[in-house]
Amino acid sequence: MTTLEFRDVVKRYNVRGRADKLTAVNHVSFTLESGKTTALVGQSGSGKSTIAKLITQLEHPDEGAILLDGEPVRRRGAGLRDYRHNVQMVFQDPFASLNPYHSIGHHLARPLQLHGRASTRADVEQKIHELLERVRLTPAREVAAKHPHELSGGQRQRVAIARALAPEPTVLIADEPVSMLDVSIRLGVLNLLADLQRQENLGLLYITHDLATARHFSDEILVMYKGEIVERGPADDVILNPQHEYTKRLAAAAPNPELRLAQLPTNRSAAMAAGKSDRNV
Ligand code: ADP
Ligand code: MG
Fold first, then answer.
1. What is the mean pLDDT of residues 131-136?
2. What superfamily does domain 3-256 belong to in CATH?
């Protein structure tokens, strides 16, 4: 059982032409746990990506602490490498996150080797194929030889997910993983993430501005507004009985036209019971 704790974290940015700093994350606390999906919901500019950057150590807190299994995270050396074994990220933009000059196989070989998950060439190749099959990109041998421009946005995002899984992390951060994809394939990618989360018992942080999918795919919802968590709780409670003005407004604005609540089972357990999974997208 892994826990990743964000404890009273503050992050401020310098803004040009402004004397005071902008507080992007303001005394935020929460805990991610193995086997649990937490949704972080909020409108653009509320501080969601800053939280993702702090968790993945692209940024560091000005105040507060981030703890992995109770230990403050290490910022460098072997400690940082251990941390990266455990905590991986899927970014929003599948077009920017893959290198156009490298094959898909190369993108997956790197983390496998870096994190000591495979050593011999044959071993690396086999693991690459396993990863591609897990994200349902088949035939794996053909996909591994391709370059990013030969893949659709949805396929690229599946490669990004496979790459994040390569080090065998315990915590996965997905920052608006489908917001740049065609509406028609979003649910397929989210279902894949949900299946992998269950299979690997991952602690998943699903960052989104979409309340409908937050409710459907998460156990717990954190609502972020202007750098603060203004409301939190079990997914159904937060959506069906919002307390904070901001959550009420978000809930009133949902369902969005693309992904209606009515099309979805009401919660995660219903989805699991229905064995819901879209393998063909
Ligand atoms: P979200 O992901 O919810 O859209 P962000 O975390 O990207 O929000 O941004 C939160 C706030 O912090 C915004 O006001 C944004 O302009 C600001 N911000 C983010 N990154 C930087 C940065 N590197 N320098 C200055 N301000 C930043
Ligand atoms: Mg963002």
1. 98
2. P-loop containing nucleotide triphosphate hydrolases (3.40.50.300)
